[in-house]
Amino acid sequence: MKANYLPGLALLAASVLPISGFAAGDAAAGKIKAFTCMGCHGIPGYNNVYPTYHVPKLGGQHADYIVAALQAYKSGQRNHGTMHAQATTLSDQDMQDIAAFFEQGGK
Amino acid sequence: MMKSIHKIVLLSVMGAVSLSAQAGGNASAGQAIASEKCQACHGADGNSTSPQFPRLAGQYQNYLERALSEYQSGARSNPIMSGFAAGLSEQDKKDVAAWFSSQKGLTSAVEPRTVSR
Predict the structure, then answer these.
(1) Domain ranges of chain A
(2) What would the pLDDT profile of A65-104 be if each residue is shown by its tens digit?
(3) What's the CA gap between A33 and A89, in Å, rounded?
(4) Which neighbouring-strand residues pair with B76?
(5) What is the domain partition of chain B in residue ranges?
(6) Which overall architecture, per CATH, does domain A24-103 show?
(7) Contact B47/B55 with Cβ under 8 angstroms?
(8) Phi/psi of residue B13, each to 5°?
(9) CA A25/CA B103 separation, integer angstroms
(10) Do A77 and B66 touch (CB under 8 A)?
(11) ipTM
(12) What distance in Å separates the CA atoms of residue A93 and residue A29, rounded to the nearest whole number?
């Protein structure tokens, strides 16, 4: 009995885990979640208040890179007050969704 | 008299040219740096094909300069980029940033108000 259902469980786990592990972002959900982002990243030529350099363009950026950047801001490995505050509110799924939205041009 | 006026005009022109080169960066000088150091990961024009490496094409010049400076100082920590940034002069950073910034790629994400309320 035990020998019969263990392989089945293993198969089930093997079929489910890769899918959830590589869940693609949902750009439509990301569009809604990115509402706050657009206040700075959606304005062409917008400057950080201090110091003065442009808030980077994200339209067309690779989703994987955006997720990595958000994770680094969240952990503090990448240091930026505003972005740290934003990133700490985001779940992994939120990041994937927002990244998918920007990758397709932020539209 | 005439000679000294010429001298003044020449000097002020030279000053203006070198000033604008400093502020703006020289994209063709930057292209040479990019083809040597950046293109393997970021693509020759900054449109990288590997999703782990960010697109740089069309990015704001002063954002790219700042990123390079932060890699140099260690404020931004990345073992690969700190190695590449380490050898760049202030002018190199401006030049290479000018090159990628002048290429077609990234866009500002507009339409902030298209979400239905």
Answers:
(1) 24-103
(2) 999 999 999 999 999 999 999 999 999 999 999 999 999 9
(3) 11
(4) A78
(5) 25-101
(6) Orthogonal Bundle (1.10)
(7) yes
(8) -65, -45
(9) 28
(10) no
(11) 0.76
(12) 10
Task: Confirm if B90 and B98 have CB atoms less than 8 A apart.
Answer: no
Q: Which two tokens stand for residue A22?
A: 């590589």
Contact A65 B53 (CB under 8 A): yes
Interchain CB contact of B66 with A (< 8 Å): yes
- Nearest-neighbour CA in chain A from B67: distance (Å): 10
Fold of B25-101: Cytochrome Bc1 Complex; Chain D, domain 2 (1.10.760)
Per-residue pLDDT of B55-81, as tens digits, reads 999 999 999 999 999 999 999 999 999
| Cβ atoms B61, B98 nearer than 8 A | yes
Chain A residues within 8 A of B114 when measuring between CB atoms: 31, 107
Give the gap in angstroms from C-alpha A65 to the nearest C-alpha of chain B: 5
